[in-house]
Write a structure and sequence with these properties.
Rossmann fold, transmembrane, alpha+beta, 552 residues, single chain, four-stranded parallel sheet, Tumour Suppressor Smad4, Vanadium-containing Chloroperoxidase, domain 1, cell membrane
Length: 552
């Protein structure tokens, strides 16, 4: 049976043409002229455009006929079902939920970015594109009935909404997820797009247009939410020998089981992240020495004793535990193996280590890099350098220390982001500024952030960096009068754009001096809050710490 596309299929309709009008007939031209009163007809119905669209339409119908006539054994059953599961984005939102349940930050970001891209692409296609072009669906007389197991859609054909959603989700995932995850998602998206032609729902041109719109939507999410680099660059430790073995001999790892675990109600029932990581180390590196900390045990003392007899010092825990391990590794000049086992694991993630298995692979490969270590030291004359408080990620003072305290109390019940929102509202409603002299200038400091290296993200607590060895401090501060616009400040913190707050300044520095007028200052270092002397100096030890890094 011959296809009757040329007899009954309109390729494109102008926005004002009625459904009964064939687009390139005289009737259709008269209706089109009413929709374009200034020019007499839409641009695409005039000579050169009309001829071009005619050639494209014929090529599109020819490609559809070829696909309709194709026989792909095995796919006659698979592709129609795959196309059906993509209805209303069910396939992609289910995939996003699965990625979110992995508890891996990169995959969670990929799921969120892909979902946002769908939310952008879907209305562009279904509200704007389909209503603007009003292209009819293909005639399916060449498509075998086995492929058309469900009622064909009755909406307009151009562009393909399924293809746009598939491409948007795949592009969003590709910006964040590793290739091992992004590639299967991209292949599935391509299969869904092909299935729309294979089942007779769309012409190839509809699908290509949908793919283009979806890809632009996915890439466009970077305009409001910059993609995070998977690994921060570090200086390679050239010529430094490190003793590593396949069974872990010479590795002494300290495990903090209180890091990254569930709450007190589930402790002992469900293993925490640190306990899971310790179990993997014990299985993969049986000759390594594992030291499990007891509740209340002195971290600094435990790491110092472990570093004395270690060729490699390992740490399993969150950022606060890694901070204590870095101190011992520097004091004893041993390389540090960071195994993620905390709640956020900012430093491990900056290195590109998101799972214990990646840390083990980096150890066995013996790849070392050198990173900067920042510090806050007592700046009073004659104080010396023995009281340096190190930090690998961030240090902060002002209302931010109160925000950290409140967030930590709430996050076990509410989760990270709801706890941050509630803590920000409560803190900025009740907080008072810190009167301090900052680099010789008296200021009323509401929020102060000092980063070990320049951070690429915005907000009160940025989380990612492009380099860990740039030798700079990233200083961000809200310093204004005694009165702060509280509602505006809360909105700025939650939106991640502190520059909207009056008195916000950000600058790059090699050092920073702070003198608190009211005496003792509270400082949050890598998420741990502690008191410090009123006169402190922030600085850097460039490329001082040797760490194991994954293959770049």
């Amino acid at each position: 049976m011959r296809s009757n596309h040329s007899r009954s299929l309109p390729v494109l309709r102008s926005p004002g043409s009625p459904p009964s009008a064939r687009p390139w007939s005289r009737t259709g031209a008269r209706n089109a002229s009413r929709a374009w009163p200034r020019t007499g007809s839409p641009p695409w119905s005039r000579g050169p455009y009309r001829a071009l669209l005619g050639r494209l339409g014929r090529a599109d119908r020819w490609a559809f006929d070829r696909v309709a006539a194709a026989r792909l054994p095995g796919l006659e059953y698979v592709l129609p079902r795959l196309s059906r599961t993509a209805d209303h984005g069910v396939l992609w939102f289910t995939t996003a939920a699965a990625l979110g349940l992995t508890r891996r930050p990169r995959l969670r970001r990929a799921a969120l970015r892909g979902s946002i891209a769908i939310a952008v692409a879907s209305p562009v296609v279904n509200i704007l594109g389909k209503q603007a072009f009003r292209r009819a669906r293909p005639v399916v007389d060449l498509v075998p009935p086995i492929r058309i197991r469900w009622k064909l859609p009755t909406s307009h054909a151009f562009p393909s909404g399924h293809s746009a959603s598939a491409a948007a989700f795949a592009a969003g995932v590709a910006l964040e997820a590793p290739a091992a995850v992004a590639a299967p998602v991209a292949v599935t998206a391509a299969a869904v797009a092909f299935a729309r032609v294979y089942t007779g729902a769309h012409y190839p041109g509809d699908v290509l247009a949908g793919l283009g719109i979806g890809a632009l939507a996915g890439a466009g999410t970077r305009l409001v939410w910059p993609a995070r680099p998977p690994v921060a660059r570090v200086t390679r430790a050239e010529g430094e020998d490190v003793q590593v073995t396949d069974d872990g001999r010479g590795l002494v790892a300290v495990v903090n089981p209180g890091s990254g675990g569930a709450g007190e109600a589930t402790r002992g029932i469900l293993p925490g992240s640190a306990e899971v990581a310790a179990g993997l180390l014990e299985r993969e590196l049986p000759a390594a020495e594992l030291i499990v900390l007891e509740p209340g045990q002195d971290l600094r003392k435990a790491f110092a004793e472990a570093a004395e007899r270690a060729d490699v010092l390992g740490v399993v825990g969150g950022d606060g535990t890694v901070n204590a391990a870095a101190r011992a590794a520097l004091d004893h000049d041993v390389p540090l193996l960071v195994v993620p086992g905390g709640t956020f694991d900012h430093f491990a993630r900056a290195l590109g280590i998101e799972a214990p298995a990646q840390a083990i692979a980096a150890y066995r490969a013996g790849r070392l890099g050198r990173v900067d270590v920042a510090y806050a030291a007592h700046a009073a004359p004659g104080s010396g350098e023995g009281d340096e408080r190190l930090f690998l990620n961030t240090a902060s003072f002002g209302a931010y220390t109160e925000l950290v305290d409140r967030r930590e109390r709430l996050e076990k019940r509410l989760g990270k982001w709801p706890a941050l929102a509630v803590a920000a509202v409560r803190t900025l409603r009740h907080a008072e500024p810190v009167d301090a002299v900052v680099d010789g200038h008296r200021r009323h400091v509401w929020l102060a952030f000092v980063g070990n290296g320049m951070f690429g993200s915005h907000g009160a607590a940025p989380t990612w960096r492009e380099r860990l060895d740039d030798g700079c401090l990233d200083v961000r501060m809200v310093a204004t009068g005694r009165r702060l616009p509280r509602v505006r400040a809360v909105a700025a913190v939650l939106a991640g754009h502190l520059h909207l707050t009056p008195g916000y300044r950000a600058w790059r520095a090699g050092g920073l001096e702070v003198l608190a007028a009211a005496g003792e200052l509270r400082l949050a270092r890598d998420g741990e809050v502690s008191p410090v002397p009123p006169q402190i100096r922030f600085g850097k030890h460039p490329r001082a710490l040797a760490v194991f890094r994954p293959d770049a």
